[in-house]
Structure formats: C-alpha cells, structure tokens
Amino acid sequence: MPTLVLFNKPYGVQSQFRDDDNNKFTPLAEFFDDKSLRVAGRLDATSEGLLLLTADGKLNKAITHPPKANSGRKQGKTYLIQVEGIPTAEQLTQLGRGVMLKDGKTLPAKIKHVSVEDLPIALWPRHPPIRERKSVPDSWLILTIFEGKNRQVRRMTAHVGLPCLRLIRWSVAGFELKDLAVGESVHVSLSREQCQQLGL
Question: Do the beta carbons of residue 148 and residue 63 sit within 8 Å?
C-alpha cells in the first residue's frame, strides 16, 4: 500500500525543498532528509497546518489532480480561518455559493462561522503572532473548498470584506491534522478503503 507523510507545517516554511536565494522563508529540507518525497498540494509559506508528502507518483496525482485521476471525485480541503470582523449571513452565503475572482468564479464551498472553542483542534501560538486591532473584532471560519486556485482562501474572504489574519489547513482528501504538533510529521500507510476513495 502507498505511504503518505502528514506534516504540520509551521508558519514561514515553504512547500518546497529548495532554498531560493534571498528568501526569508525556511525550506522543507530542514525538516525532511528523504529526497524522494514530493509535496501533494502546496501550502503558502504564510499559511500553517496540514501538508501532504509522498514518494508515490500515482498517489500524488490522485490528491492534486482528482478530476482526471479518480473519476471526478472531488477531494475537499478544509481550512480554519481567522478573519478580521464579524461575518454576516450574506457574507457566509457568498462564500458558500462561490465568489468571482480575477481567475474565475470559485466552486460552491462549505462554510461555517464558529467560536474558537468549537475549532476541531487546540491552537498553538503563531510566531510571529498575528496583528491585533483592539477596535476591530475577529472571528473564526471553517471553510471547505473543492479546487485549488492560487491563494484562493485568502482571496475569497477578502472579496467579501473579511481580511484573513491566520490560515490553518485542517484536512486534505480525508486526511486530518488531528493532534499533530507544529513541525512534526507522521508516516501513514493507506488502507484499501482509502486507496479506493482516492481512485487508486
């Protein structure tokens, strides 16, 4: 069975192994020695949370290109998003239905406004900490999308007037961050059922 690495990517770490010149962010090579690993779905350096890596090309393709690789089954990606402001019912409806960005309208998504106590994980301190404005409240959203436009989540929330302060990816294609500590990784062997769900 194919093997997948689940990594809780810290803020400021790139989703690539190579260290670009004059780059202020940390490369993945500082966390992994296995040069056969490839990232299955990038995560911006300024975002945190679940990053998947694998040395299996078919598994990588099934996760990153689901329409062709697994008969059109859409693999959702769920994010925990701290935004500036309190979302209105209209803003939540817009995010759920899809918003028009410069590169096209986003697909319908699942969106929920929650309290920090209702997040599926206990949050860790971010370094550096997010900027806080005492005069402006903040909120947490749980958003599941089914595509991967560049910086999509940040652009979606900004589009409806909810600037993103912190972005944590909680799950990808059915794999969850759970209680994995920041900077830690775990190797998992996929079950037959998981392979079937991914179209392998």
Answer: no
Integer Rg of the chain from CA:
17
Distance CA 88, CA 29 (A): 42
pLDDT confidence band for 69 (50 / 70 / 90) = very low
**Which are the contacts of 129, defined by CB distance < 8 A and separation ≥ 6?**
none
- The single residue of 44, 118, 138, 179 carrying the catalytic annotation is 44
Distance of CA 164 to CAs 75, 83, 112, 161, 175, Å? 23, 4, 15, 9, 24
What pLDDT is recorded for position 193? Answer: 86
Question: What CATH number should be reported for the domain whose range is 76-172?
Answer: 3.30.70.1560
Multiple choice CATH, 1-72+175-200, 3.10.350.10, 3.30.70.580, 3.30.110.30, 3.40.50.300? 3.30.70.580
What is this structure's pTM? Answer: 0.92
Q: What is the pLDDT averaged over residues 126-147? A: 89
| Interval 40-61: pLDDT, tens | 988 999 999 999 999 998 888 8
- Residue 44 known to be catalytic: yes
